[in-house]
Write a structure and sequence with these properties.
4-stranded mixed beta sheet; mainly beta; 9 strands; globular; 5-stranded antiparallel beta sheet; 7% helix; 137 residues
Length: 137
Amino acid sequence: MVDIEKMSRREFESLPHRKWDEEIDCDSIIILPSRRLHDSGYRCMDFVAVKDNEPFCLLSDCSDVIHVDGIGGYGIGGYGYHWLGKYKTVPNTALPSGWSIDCLPKSGLLRMWPSTGRIKCGIGLASFEVFALETPI
């Protein structure tokens, strides 16, 4: 078993990428700043999906912003969770969840998770969305 608290940045960077349009469930993500700039001028970020304290894939590599609990879900121009296309409705509110962030001791990277203990990671676009899910994985 890999201990994320003892992993280096290079070890996180060497994880495989998911397919860009694959949605992933996990229990925390690690924010991995990229070495390149986005067209917006801000630094790109990648995110490491973690389940049961085990990192298993990289999620984006092209996002300059993370949207906690989404960007409204409307899916305009291919962005967002696309609630209208998937469910023919848009929720009035997001599931309330307290989000926490800590800093891993060796790599210095930030890890983020919701109080529900479960995250849905949206597809890998310039705007990266994460949602707290109601039940544990």
